[in-house]
Amino acid sequence: MWLKPNRALDRRGLRRLIVLLVVLALTTAVLGAWVGNVFAPLFALVESLAVAVALHVAWRGGGRGERITLDETSLEVQSLPGRRRVRFQSCWVRVRLDEGDNGCHRLLLSSHGRELEIGRFLAEQERVELLRKLKLLLGEVNGQLRG
Length: 147
Known about the structure:
By secondary structure, the chain is of the alpha+beta class. 47% of the residues lie in helices and 26% in strands. The protein is built from 3 helices and 7 strands. It has helices at 11-34, 40-61, 124-146; strands at residues 2-3, 65-70, 74-80, 85-89, 94-99, 105-111, 114-118. A 4-stranded antiparallel beta sheet has the order 1-2-3-4, covered by helices on one side. A hairpin with a 5-residue loop joins strand 5 (94-99) and strand 6 (105-111). Helix 1 packs antiparallel against helix 2 (40-61). The two termini are 25 Å apart. 10% of the residues are buried.
């Protein structure tokens, strides 16, 4: 299963938003320069660049995710982007919600003294739903092994 945060815009939408904001800022700056504020276009360019960079960084943060693979022997979590993989034995792994620092719950996988938080970017309700789904899938896999 793939876990990904919700994105409001695709890459094309982000570019359109940035172009619209730059056009609005420069139009306002040109009007300001026309009435005597000669530094307005320079400040508009600096502001436009800062806003574009901030939006791009925030948008790239929405590209992170996790891939969870479950089979008869293991449950594997791969962090994306990146190559970090953590593997647990499916018959020993436990899934639980733990109270976090800011009042939100953390979804944890644990086995043999190791813990891994998954779905950090998900909403609270999505974490609870994922908890139920993982418990159900782990129960089915472990039931098949016993049966």
